[in-house]
Design goal:
About 55% of the residues lie in helices and about 10% in strands. The protein contains four helices and three strands. It has a three-stranded antiparallel sheet with strand order 1-2-3. The longest helix is centred in the middle third of the chain and has 24 residues. It is globular and about 50 Å long. It starts with a helix and ends with a helix.
Amino acid sequence: MLYYMLIALLSGLDIGIKNLIENIPDSKLPKALEIPLIKVSDKKIILYKSHNRGFPLGVLEERHKLVSCLPVFITASLSLWLALDIKQKKSFRSKLPLSLIIAGALSNIYDRLKRGYVVDYININILPIKKLVFNLGDVSILLGSILRAFLKR
């Protein structure tokens, strides 16, 4: 149950942030992110509003059907894998990474189905990622993938 709650929380948070970003007038973005109680110096974190119709970095944006269907198939497969891991009482080292990947994928799938594109909104203004704009779902997928690769079952 904990892993399903984590998925709902992370994907819901990302969807909520995307909705907020979509409602900000284009003239107000990009904008440096100011976080109370945390010193973010030199405008290192920038809020953007970017619409990505492809996979990360706009890959295959002209193949709309593939870009829409493949993540649904992969996420359904990962969800089944997670359900089996939960049923078999596998370690959190197996379930946590899958939960993070699924949460990020679901928020991006929601965007593709609702809007026809994924809303990306975070830029970290440091090399080598200075030109990338991404969202919390992307971070969740990346973190889950890294954990999956490095945590032993």
